[in-house]
């Protein structure tokens, strides 16, 4: 069986549902069991198999009322289950632009591409929250996983899986593309606060107070 078919079969199985839940963030056995409608022992069997495959690992222990609960998360290797076919070709394109024109020109090029694509993707969403939700959906279509969290003064798009994870490690400028893509859809200035301490996770902050202002042009 080839790798693509193996991934498809895995993700369609109960074990794949465990992986999908863990993409949203670490969970305990009880939390997984509740979401999947399984017993704790049933979940432990699936986690043990995923640990053997190198896809899941224990993150630590969550303490509360009763016995401490082990917390599980995906390993960086699990990202290979969600392949990014663009990675090889796009990395070569970015390397070529960087070598020919320099890092600053590469960043500006990516900003222009992201801004243009985002503005084209914007569709009749009159309110700020609706435009943010459209940006979250677009990140999902590109292979990422994100949610929008609203506070009194801002809306934050918090990613659990970066759609550009396959290239960000060697091309950090790619975050500028994602930032402008989100900004183009939202139609407001977006602050990029991405977490690169481990597997890259997108974080974009949109100020509620400044959302109605037109975005400043960054170039052609």
Overview of the structural elements:
The chain has 220 residues and is an alpha+beta fold. The protein folds into 2 domains: 3-81, Arc Repressor Mutant, subunit A; 114-207, no CATH class. 48% of the residues lie in helices and 16% in strands. The strands form 2 sheets. A 4-stranded antiparallel β-sheet has the order 4-5-7-6, covered by helices on one side. Strands 1-3-2 form a 3-stranded antiparallel β-sheet. A hairpin with a 6-residue loop joins strand 2 and strand 3. Helix 6 (103-121) runs parallel beside helix 9 (174-186).
**SSE string:** HHEHHEEHHHEEHHEE
The biggest beta sheet is recorded as:
4 strands, antiparallel
* Count of β-strands: 7
Overall 3D shape:
globular
Physical arrangement of strands within the biggest beta sheet: 4-5-7-6
Structural class: alpha+beta
Rounded radius of gyration (Å)? 19 Å
Overview in brief:
The chain is of the alpha+beta class and 220 residues long.
Strand and helix map with partners:
Layout: H1 3-12, H2 14-23, E1 27-28, H3 29-36, H4 40-52, E2 56-62, E3 69-74, H5 87-101, H6 103-121, H7 128-141, E4 145-150, E5 154-161, H8 165-168, H9 174-186, E6 191-192, E7 203-207
Antiparallel strand pairs: 1-3, 2-3, 4-5, 5-7, 6-7
